[in-house]
Amino acid sequence: MLTAIGDVMRRAYERGWITTRDGNISMRKREGKYLYITPSGWRKTIVHPEHIVRIEIMKEPRTGILTPNVVAGQQPSGELWMHWNLQRDTKKTRTIVHVHATHIVAALYAGFDLQAISAEFPEISRYTKVGPTVPALPALSRELADVTAACFGIGKDGALAFDIVGQANHGVCAVAMDPWAAYEHIERLDHICEMVLKSGVPAPARVKVSAPA
Ligand SMILES: [Zn+2]
Fold first, then answer.
1. How far is the CA of 202 from the CAs of 41, 43, 152, 166, 168, in angstroms?
2. Which of 6, 11, 111, 169 might form a disulfide with 136, Cβ 3.0–4.6 angstroms?
3. Contact, 22 vs 100, CB < 8 A?
């Protein structure tokens, strides 16, 4: 399955869903003591199993809370916390794929509601549960990581209510057991976003949220 991480990255690059150094994937095996995650800054077109960062999962002795133990020399993806939030309490093998899928980001930018348009297309609504969209937040921030987990409807047991969420002005995060299944969630949503955009139907007026004065 580690080989599939690089394969999915290469496919995402070919589809224009990432530029060379964007995107990240993590995997945790069932009851596994390691988090596997793509390296920071590395060219994603040449990710192979030997480049994947293997982080030991430690239990804090005092609190019993699990935490990723990044040691000197390891350079995991800058979105480590986005992955960790979704991986920490999983009971099953889980893969998270984060890319900047073009049509999904374009549809969000135009003002479409991903849940509303997904409900109109059986191609996606049968196989992929689309969650609420994460608002525009700085990349690599803890806020992005925390709000992404909240939009997935994460439960105390690590269960997730949705398979994919969009992240405004940024990208998308998808969850499945293996990298290719997560890829398929992104592909389905990207495809219907492309059809909606090509239909020429205008997006509903964007609701502008202004900061309090
Ligand atoms: Zn990103």
1. 37, 37, 27, 19, 18
2. 169
3. yes
Ligand 1 centroid, distance to 138 Cα (angstroms): 10
Domain boundaries, the chain: 2-199
Residues with CB under 5 A from ligand 1 (ion): 171
The mean of the pLDDT values for the chain is 94
Residue numbers in the chain where pLDDT is lower than 70: 206-213
Q: Tokens 């969630």 label which residue?
A: 185
Query: What is the whole-number distance in angstroms between the Cα of residue 213 and the centre of ligand 1?
Result: 30
Helices (H), 57-173: 80-87, 102-110, 114-118, 122-125, 142-151
* pLDDT in the model for residue 169: 97
Q: CA distances (Å), 126 to each of 11, 154, 175, 185, 189, in order?
A: 24, 21, 16, 11, 12
Asked if the 2-199 domain carries CATH number 3.40.50.300, the reply is no
